[in-house]
Structures are given as structure tokens and as C-alpha cells.
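Quick question: who can interpret this fold?

. . .
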Amino acid sequence: MRKEIEYKKFIEALSKDAGAFLKCRLGNIGKISYKGRINLVTDVDKGCEAIILNKIKTAYPEHRILSEEAGKDGADKSGYLWLIDPLDGTTNYVHGFNFFCVSIALMKDDILIAGAVYDPMRDELFSAVKAGGAFLNHKRIKVSGIRMLDKALLSTGFPYRLGNSMRQNIDNFVKFLMLSQAVRRPGSAALDLCYVASGRFDGFWEMELNPWDTAAGVLIVKEAGGHVTNFKNESYSPFMGQIVATNKYLHKKILSVLKKRPLKRLSI
């Protein structure tokens, strides 16, 4: 456990350094390019990523890295893998909508052991260590106690690829609008997960996510007492595309809605 706590402290400090860079550059973006028709990437993403990668490689040169922009780095020898999203919520960032974050997680032999998500605009640092609890600015957090779907505030997101998954999740969105208290779509999966962990959201679902989108947030939800699976109710891995994260009380209810047939009249 001592080693895991050391990693957690390293990740927390690194997340805050990277977040300070994001905050400093907000409104001063240089180059904006596209990885798809609506999937943005900026020089800020890459600059922030460089800060994170340089510090990890200096401190832990034997570890592997998987990062959103740089991809894979390092040989598979140590069993350690870093999963990094230097700017989750790039579209929000570009438009000056202040819901974005840095997300950093560490796995050992395919098990998440430490992670942090930092929101620099609210100075909120969510973090967790395996079997050691989840925290917001170093104070313990836990999931909500909401047990009824019609009393629940839910969150989701939509894939960048405009196709069947987009249509399917619009259908899911409509179904949950009818069944829950409300549904939000803030635009950062990592923060959505942290909001589940801290009881601000009662549940979250999404499709076509990448490992760096969810790794840190998943550990934080689990350590806060929540439950995380894919749509088939299988134990979640960051390498799965579908995710359902809840306060555990609503999990079966949300899964049952996701399994229902699409609304016949919905079209886009």
C-alpha cells in the first residue's frame, strides 16, 4: 500500500501542474486541428501532454505509457501502464466552456492502482488509490444514496463518430429523460465519473470511450463505493468501449433501460 500511496501523491502533483498549464493557456490557443469531423485537438493538448510525459519518463523510465495524443510508449517489461488524457473536454476548452480536466491513472498488471482527475477552473482534485478510498481535495468522498431512478440525476456523452452509436445513445438519452429526474451532458467523461463518485451525479453511461477517458475516474468511483460495468454487466476494464457507472443502487435499473428496444419514432 505504501508504494501505491506514493504513486497517488505523484499523480496528484502532476495533475495539478498540468492543470495549471491548461488554465494559463485558456483563451490563448495556438493551433487547432481535427482528428475527425468534430473531434478537435489543439497545441494545448499536446503541450500539456508533453509536461506529463516528461515527468513520468524521468521518474519512472521503465514504465509503459498510453496517452491520447502521443499513443503508446515503452516496452512491456515492468507491468506498469500509465493512462493519460492531458485535456479531457477539448471541445469545451476551445469554446471557453469551463468543464474540462486532466486525467492520469496507473495500472499494475492490468489492475488500476492509483489515479487523479483535476479540474483547474474549480481547483478540484479528485483522486483514489486501490483499497485506500477516494478523495476530493484530500477529503473522503462517497457516492449518493439515491435508490429510485425518477429521483436520479444522470449524465452521458456522445461519440465523435456520427453513426449508429450516436443514434443509439440519442435514443438512450430520450428514454432516461422520461424515466429519471434529469439528464446532463457536460462533455468530459472523466469529470462525469468523478461527479458520480462525489454524489453530484447518481449514474453515468456512455459508448465508444477510450482507456484514457475512463481509467482514473473508474478507480475513483469504485473507491467511493460505486459500481462500474459495461452494458452487459461485466466487470469494467478501461479497454471496454461501453461504460455504466452508478452509486450501485441504481445499477440494475439503468442497465435494464439500456437493454430496452429503441424508440421507433426517433430519427436524426
Remarks:
- The longest helix spans residues 2-25.
- The radius of gyration is 18 Å.
- Residues 263-268 have pLDDT under 50 and may be disordered.
- The chain has two domains: 2-140, 149-258.
